[in-house]
Amino acid sequence: MNRFFNSTVMARVAARLERLYGPEARLCLERFAMLVGRYGVGSGNIPAPSSRWTAGDTVLIAYGDSVRAEGEKPLATLKHFADKRLQGAFSTIHILPFFPYSSDDGFSVIHFRQVDPALGDWPEIEALKTRFKLMFDLVLNHVSRSSGWFRDYELGIAPGSRYFIELDPKTDLRSVVRPRSLPLLSPVQTRAGLKQVWTTFSSDQVDLNFANPDVLFELLDILLFYISMGARIIRLDAIAYLWKEIGTSCIHLPQVHEIVKLMRDLVDLAAPDTILLTETNVPHAENVSYFGGGDEAHMVYQFSLPPLVLHAALSGKAGYLTKWAAGLADPPPGCTFLNFTASHDGIGVRPLEGIVPDADITWLAEEAKKRGGAVSSRKMEDGSEKPYELNITYFDAVSGPGPHVARFLATQSVPLVMRGIPAVYINSVVATPNDRKLMEQTGRARSINRTKWDHAVLDKCLADPQSAAAQVLDAYLHMLRVRADCPAFHPDGAQRVLELDPRVFAVERTAPKGEARVTALTNFSGEEVSVRLDAGGTDLLSGRNVDQKVNLPPYGVVWAG
Fold it and tell me: I need a labelling partner for 36 at 20 to 30 A (CA). Which of 22, 325, 355, 367 fits?
């Protein structure tokens, strides 16, 4: 432990705790040391940035019960599906919150250290770990009203009695940035009388008070527990809203960044192979601020990518996507992006702010409605509402005249070729359509994109080579396996966006040591397009020779290397 106490990291930790908790910092530092000691200090050799990931790193996003089979625990069914269908294509499975919960499909956690018995138990998680790396959610902004902590708050029992934020309902909270058009304060009857507690997302999801260091250390302990149970990537859910200060926007406050940096220090000491991923569905500049100076999150989502790719697919023009991608700054050394088009949530449109005109955001919302989707809004400070999220499956979002599967696959190629690690939602892998029946059953717009497949039905569907599910899965697996074998797609490889044609998104990727280069072309239009490259080569996807003049069919994709 002497090495730990004398380390540069320890000095940083002390300074962070001082900024967060002032007079309590010394005691907090002792608690931090005890926490690291409890889970065991790593070797002290923090990996070189390039050693954390490879070109073969790809994440599958799935609920623990995304695939179900009668008489079998859903987590076991997920393993069977992944073992049978996804070997060699995905390195990591992101199991969305698999803990006992009361609402929001898992994001209102009742108990952080248990597996929901309806899904399985820790042995099922352990079994998944034998074939895949794992990613867990740390849902740290809030807990369920049904949690033990909140029950203790209601009864006035320590320490839970100090874990939440009470406010006078007359407090002026107009400056607080809201992700939902719901009341910010929710009433709760306690032993001490009726109180109003802070609830950023819903009345069932009560925000934790991180100004109390006891709360921070509860969550740091849970973080290390998840790592000890096999998590290689920890997704920090809704992290931007963590710290509250009356009179501010209560989003992205300096204390939030300090806490993420503290978590980075913790994993650098105790589990240096761990990757911290921040979830901040906000405009791009705010999103990438969570890289810090390379001392904060290892990875952030490319939240602007899904709506930009959708805009390109529906308009047939890649101009906004190309301009945005060309202007991306390289992430700090040892950091990268998580690239995706779809997830368990809808398609957020806030990340388009400052990139496309407001009229285009409104147009996208209307196009989503035409394709059977819904639009969630957020309330602005003046009381008006603006689109926040498009609730629709990505497969149906790109439906329309012409070859639907080809158009969809064109959109899915983009996250695979851009710098970073691709993440693919399980319902995109099998071309799942809108589940309006589920949305009507639950009354929640996001349910439209959260279909739970019967394993036998899915197998039957995938056995039909003419089905959209089979065509998409086969093409997806091929792209992923080709990508894994090409060092130019290493997350640390250089990226250069090319302007070849307004209808085409073109990006050149070069391996970190320059040993391979690929130019990836995606035609977003329903027309054949010809573009000219500096040099020909071979299309890695088809194996055909590529001349300097490349003819792209409608929605065609070529990876020329």
Answer: 22
Instruction: For 17, list phi and psi in degrees, rounded to 5.
Output: -65, -35
Instruction: Tell me the pairing of strands 185-190 and 193-198.
Output: antiparallel
Q: Are β-strands 504-510 and 494-498 bridged in parallel, bridged antiparallel, or unpaired? A: antiparallel
Question: Per residue in 502-552, pLDDT tens?
Answer: 999 999 999 999 999 999 999 999 999 999 999 889 999 999 999 999 999
Q: How far apart are CA 164 and CA 212, in angstroms?
A: 9
Pairing relation of β-strands 299-301 and 275-278?
parallel
Q: Does the active-site annotation cover 116?
A: no
Closest CA to 53 of 362, 512, 543: 512
- Distance of alpha carbon 302 from alpha carbon 331, whole angstroms: 12
Reported residue count of the chain is: 561
Residue at token pair 């802070």: 198
Tell me what pLDDT residue 47 has.
52
* Host H or E run for residue 480: helix 468-484
Distance CA 365, CA 360 (A): 9
Domains of the chain, earliest start first: 142-207 (3.90.400.10)
Give this prediction's pTM: 0.95
Q: What does the pLDDT look like over 93-107, one tens digit per residue?
A: 999 999 999 999 999
Q: Pick the catalytic residue: 237, 265, 396, 492? A: 237
Rounded Cα distance between 77 and 87, Å, is: 15
Which residues make Cβ contacts (< 8 Å) with residue 402, sequence separation at least 6? 526, 554, 555
Calculate the CA dihedral of residues 370, 373, 374, 377 and round it to 10 degrees: -90
- Strands 504-510, 517-523: pairing is antiparallel
Element (H, E) at 507: strand 504-510
